[in-house]
Specification:
Length: 216
């Protein structure tokens, strides 16, 4: 487990302590890390002045995907231990913030220990629980979730969502792609690490790119 963890108080933070945070779910991590594009993800979110947080449960889920995507665990481990990511400790009844446990149990519909044993959609539930907690403390919170079910969970709790497409739209605005062909190539690489991304032509990326070029 990385030495650097995000510490969250049960009390609201002062205006000077407030951060804009982005809590990453496993699906987005797998897409970008699997495609060896994690530097793009980090650069875009940091340029957007977002602090990157990842629950330990999400780290574990990404690492397990190495059986499907060889080399994923190694690349993810380097990013997880880097200065760019703050890892939120695994949920435990003894140490987890009360609000995180409360929301997590509500999302899962069962008590903490039982809820943690069910691996399906675990990461999304943990991300949403931490998101509500940080938002209650006074931080501006975004959750990076690309699964529609997870997005619905976040929306029910008034959490702003960032998707893979959103990250690329921000990358366009930050000038990461000199020609649209580079954008298309990047998107196709990302599509190779999951079946949830629609074809490029079905996204708003081409429209966003042309708009950016016209303004430039």
């Amino acid at each position: 487990m990385p030495e650097k963890h995000a510490e969250a108080s049960e009390r609201a933070v002062s205006p000077e302590q407030r951060e804009s945070v982005c809590i990453l779910d496993a699906v987005i991590c797998v897409h970008f890390v699997g495609a060896n594009l994690h530097r793009l993800l980090v650069d875009v979110l940091e340029k957007a002045e977002l602090t990157l947080l990842v629950p330990q449960e999400v780290c574990d889920e990404v690492a397990r995907k190495d059986r499907k995507y060889r080399g994923l665990q190694l690349r993810w481990g380097r990013l997880e231990r880097s200065q760019h990511v703050r890892v939120l400790p695994a949920l435990e009844a003894r140490t987890a913030p009360t609000r995180v446990v409360e929301v997590f149990e509500d999302v899962r519909g069962r008590q903490l220990e039982d809820a943690l044993r069910e691996s399906k959609d675990l990461g999304e539930a943990v991300v949403v629980a931490h998101g509500v907690h940080f938002q209650d403390l006074g931080h501006e919170v975004f959750v990076a979730i690309d699964d529609q079910g997870g997005q619905a969970l976040a929306a029910e709790r008034d959490l702003a969502v960032i998707t893979v497409e959103d990250v690329l739209m921000m990358a366009i605005e930050f000038g990461h792609f000199s020609v649209e062909g580079e954008l298309k190539k990047t998107y196709e690489k990302l599509r190779g690490f999951g079946d949830g991304l629609p074809p490029y032509a079905s996204t708003e990326l081409s429209i966003s790119y042309k708009s950016w070029r016209e303004r430039g």
